[in-house]
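We were asked to recover a plausible sequence for a given structure. The inputs and outputs are reproduced exactly as logged, with field labels preserved.

PROBLEM: sequence recovery
POSITIONS: 582
GIVEN STRUCTURE:
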């Protein structure tokens, strides 16, 4: 099937890969304009949900559904399975509360990405380079490439452990997985790729019989929602909590979902549908995480509890204690998670590569039409697959280390995300509201405090629980005072903008301007106008926009965050080395 861009067949179009379509938007790749062609249906480029029946809107949702579901299921990848299994085996269901707290984090972060992708029509990396310059772009994308490459290694580790359960040696499983992963994307058809992913996602249904067969205690699971620190708050427990955060809300998810929304040609009129898609994915990922914790917590023999080594060992222990069926279901879930995760993380990286270099980066193109996109994908799989042949004891610790690295780098990725979502030149009427900024600020500061606690317990392993509680309390107080200061500064800036506007309007003061606006339109009318504006507003060509300026205070804060993250990353490495050496 030929896909269309601006009404021209993609095989005959004369639009260059790096040039924006003629409509003057920020879209760079001509394959990113046209009908939405999903695994479960098609929506025309100029279609609308207005006046449709419920059944018609449901069919539209099925066609649009994909980016949110895939990014969330990909979140439960090999590292996720290993991390949740470790939490269940070592601490029972006592850490379920971490998952509950991460639900708003998942939604707030990924919903901002939904708006950026649909409105801007370009990937996350492209926006960062365009709005903040090469230095900060290289900082953001450089971190992404390193962590993603290591994450893909963990996906190959998951494939190896899962197939080893069924007697397939590593020498066969890794090359076989690499070939399959490349074949999934190499057909030049977005719909075919998405259908393949949906088939893998459907295999996640094995989590229900898996959880049922280990005879879980609902009471024990429910108690896990209440925050607790089993065994005391120490560096080992904190590392696991940071790993849960890193595997549940990883930086690659921001880059993947935004680029995948762009590649699927989702525009602002479909943002409500994409939010539903995201919620469906969040529900699936949370059910899967709890099912994995249950399997390790209730399905293992008492002697195995507290002695986690890797996900493959969990599958074998389940086989020994609960029977062949339970072990096989866990291994299948691990294999499926590894394949979905490897595909999503690899695409996140090559999408960002195309954004960075201004080359074609779409699954709508064939290999000959976007050689850099597919070559980058193949090279990434090859290198990661080769590293996956490392000794087993190194690979086991690498899996947890990668999730922890993702956790400590997440604040940086979220800061860029929030800045972009407050950039009116990029999002226009879709910029963050005050409430969204407050939630995002709480999330960023909470993640920073968590990584600070990991830093402190790594340097000072004998810190008492009371000391850590005092530290968290002080951190919360600093965060509240800092938030108030930021809000006051923003109010002053808004006041200055209003005064400048007043001068343009002939000397009216800000209160008079507000009264003038109120007399023109009622609240309902303003809401209707805003809705109409949002449905059609798209980001202009990025090279026509003036780059935002950083204040001295914001620049100092960014450099301080960067410096701290370098230290935090080094300390994660120290902690992993300590575990290797015992």
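RECOVERED SEQUENCE:
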């Amino acid at each position: 099937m030929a896909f269309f861009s601006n009404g021209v067949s993609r095989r005959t179009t004369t639009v260059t890969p790096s040039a924006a379509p003629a409509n003057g938007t920020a879209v760079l790749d001509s394959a990113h304009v046209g009908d939405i062609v999903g695994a479960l249906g098609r929506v025309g480029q100029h279609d609308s949900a207005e006046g449709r029946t419920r059944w018609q809107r449901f069919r539209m949702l099925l066609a649009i559904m994909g980016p949110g579901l895939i990014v969330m299921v990909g979140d439960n990848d090999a590292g996720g399975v290993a991390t949740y299994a470790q939490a269940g085996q070592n601490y029972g269901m006592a850490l379920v509360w971490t998952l509950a707290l991460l639900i708003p984090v998942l939604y707030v972060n990924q919903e901002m990405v939904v708006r950026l992708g649909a409105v801007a029509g370009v990937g996350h990396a492209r926006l960062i380079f365009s709005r903040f310059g090469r230095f900060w772009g290289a900082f953001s994308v450089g971190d992404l490439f390193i962590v993603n490459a290591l994450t893909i290694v963990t996906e190959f580790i998951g494939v190896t452990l899962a197939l080893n359960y069924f007697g397939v040696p590593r020498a066969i499983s890794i090359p076989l997985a690499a070939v399959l992963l490349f074949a999934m994307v190499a057909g030049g058809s977005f719909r075919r790729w998405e259908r393949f992913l949906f088939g893998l996602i459907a295999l996640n249904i094995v989590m229900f019989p898996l959880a049922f067969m280990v005879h879980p205690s609902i009471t024990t699971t429910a108690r896990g929602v209440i925050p607790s620190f089993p065994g005391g708050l120490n560096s080992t427990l904190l590392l696991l909590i940071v790993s849960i955060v890193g595997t549940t809300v990883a930086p690659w998810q921001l880059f993947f979902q935004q680029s995948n929304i762009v590649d699927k040609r989702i525009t602002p009129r479909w943002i409500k549908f994409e939010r539903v898609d995201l919620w469906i994915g969040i529900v699936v990922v949370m059910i899967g995480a709890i099912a994995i914790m249950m399997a390790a917590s209730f399905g293992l023999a008492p002697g195995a509890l507290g002695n986690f080594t890797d996900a493959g060992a969990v599958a074998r222990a389940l086989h020994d204690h609960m029977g062949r069926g339970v072990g096989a279901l866990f291994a299948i879930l691990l294999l499926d998670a590894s394949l979905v995760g490897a595909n999503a993380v690899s695409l996140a990286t090559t999408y960002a590569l195309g954004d960075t270099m201004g080359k074609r980066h779409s699954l709508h193109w064939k290999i000959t039409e976007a050689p850099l996109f597919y070559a980058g994908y193949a090279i990434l799989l090859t290198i990661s697959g080769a590293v996956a042949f490392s000794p087993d004891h190194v690979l086991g610790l690498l899996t947890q280390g990668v999730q922890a690295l993702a956790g400590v780098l997440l604040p940086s990725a979220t800061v860029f995300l929030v800045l972009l979502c407050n950039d009116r030149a990029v999002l226009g009427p879709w910029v963050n509201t005050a409430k969204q900024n407050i939630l995002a600020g709480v999330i960023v500061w909470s993640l920073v405090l968590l990584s600070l606690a990991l830093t402190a317990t790594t340097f000072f392993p004998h810190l008492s629980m009371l000391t850590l509680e005092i530290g968290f309390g002080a951190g919360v107080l600093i965060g509240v005072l800092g938030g108030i200061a930021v809000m006051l500064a923003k109010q002053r800036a808004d006041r200055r903008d209003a005064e400048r506007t007043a001068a343009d309007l002939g000397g009216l003061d800000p209160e008079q301007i507000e009264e003038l606006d109120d007399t023109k339109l009622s609240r309902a009318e303003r809401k209707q106008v805003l809705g109409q504006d949002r449905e059609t507003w798209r980001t202009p060509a990025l090279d026509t926009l003036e780059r935002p300026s950083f204040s001295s205070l914001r620049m100092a804060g960014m450099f301080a965050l960067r410096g701290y993250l370098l230290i935090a990353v080094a300390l994660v490495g120290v902690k992993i080395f300590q575990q290797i050496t015992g």
